[in-house]
Specification:
GO molecular function: hydrolase activity
Distance between the termini: 28 Å
Structural class: alpha/beta
Keywords: Hydrolase, Lipid degradation, Lipid metabolism
Strand content: 5-15%
Order of helices and strands: EHEHHHHHEHEHEEHEHEHH
Shape: globular
Protein name: Patatin-like phospholipase family protein
Helix content: 40-55%
Largest sheet: 8 strands, mixed
């Protein structure tokens, strides 16, 4: 039988919510039953974070690591960031090279220690938007406007990672987190990719296609659970989502203020505990990894 799948959605700084929720899942023992992972953007990064370390170390990175340096160049503040993005959206030229850097991502991945996965079998999907077919001269602006207007860009790919090849994992995590406007498309080989969340913010699809019918999904934004169930009628989905609004692009997704991160983290912890207590699950003492744990979610 298939195992239990964990789906983590996109959301930038709102990803602190997922790690708070993960703490609750660990306290209830759910971490022992998850075999397959799927994520977009920060959700994909968090999926590897929780596979390489325990929840305490993952929490330490989110609450004590200077994550603003991961996303922004030294000296960049949120106000200058907002101004540059708004200039671009209104058709004016803005210089982003001095605001954003990918070096911080590489340092973060080194901190995570992806090399520690060597020798282990992985079963993780990373969502990316493949924008290779968009002409070079149009790629940056078109993906940015598609993202801004809520349109899909290019086509969606669910990269299935089964081997712990650290360099490839780093490349694909850079690709899935390449937010349009904020970062240019990421090139891997002869293909160009941008943030997977612009096409599928909560990637249940690859797990459902695999026949994984017991799924825990953690969203960084409120979504319609009934619509999710209509899309995946045969899946038992435990949906954990924010009980209050976590903010927009500027005061949520790109806001790595430590106080904000802590509030988001503890909200995730609280919401997850409530969601878990609200479902009727009995774990048999004879549970085996190939059994299905059916997580019933009621709204």
């Amino acid at each position: 039988m298939s195992g239990i799948g964990l789906v983590l959605g996109g959301g930038g700084a709102k990803g602190a919510y997922q790690i708070g929720a993960w703490k609750a899942l660990c306290e209830f023992g759910y971490n022992n039953y998850i075999d397959v992972y799927s994520g977009s953007s920060i959700g994909a990064i968090n999926n590897f974070l929780i596979q390489t370390m325990d929840w305490k170390d993952a929490t330490n990175i989110w609450l004590n690591y200077n994550l603003s340096k991961v996303f922004f160049a030294d000296g960049t503040d949120l106000d200058s960031l907002v101004k540059a993005i708004r200039m671009t959206l209104f058709g004016k030229k803005a210089q982003f090279d001095s605001l954003f850097t990918r070096d911080g991502f590489v340092n973060l991945f080194n901190t995570i220690g992806l090399e520690n996965l060597e020798g282990t079998a992985l079963d993780t999907y990373v969502t990316v938007a493949n924008v290779t077919e968009i002409p070079d001269e149009e790629r940056v602006l078109k993906t940015a406007m598609d993202w801004y207007k809520g349109r899909k860009s290019g086509f969606t790919q669910y990269i299935h990672i089964k081997k712990p090849e650290a360099d490839f994992i780093k490349d694909i995590l850079l690709a899935t987190s390449a937010i349009p406007i904020v970062y240019p498309p990421e090139k891997i080989g002869d293909q160009y990719y941008v943030d997977g969340a612009i096409n599928d913010v909560l990637p249940v699809y690859p797990l459902n296609k695999r026949g994984i019918n017991s799924i825990i999904a953690i969203s960084c934004d409120r979504i319609n659970y009934q619509a999710l169930k209509r899309k995946y009628p045969y899946a038992d989905i435990l949906l954990i989502q924010p009980s209050r609004y976590l903010g927009n692009l500027f005061n949520g997704t790109l806001n790595f203020d430590n106080r904000k991160l802590r509030e988001t983290y503890y909200l995730g912890y609280s919401d997850a505990k409530k969601a878990i207590r609200g479902i009727d699950i009995v774990l048999s003492s004879g549970y085996q990894r190939d059994e299905v744990l059916s997580a019933q979610h009621s709204m």
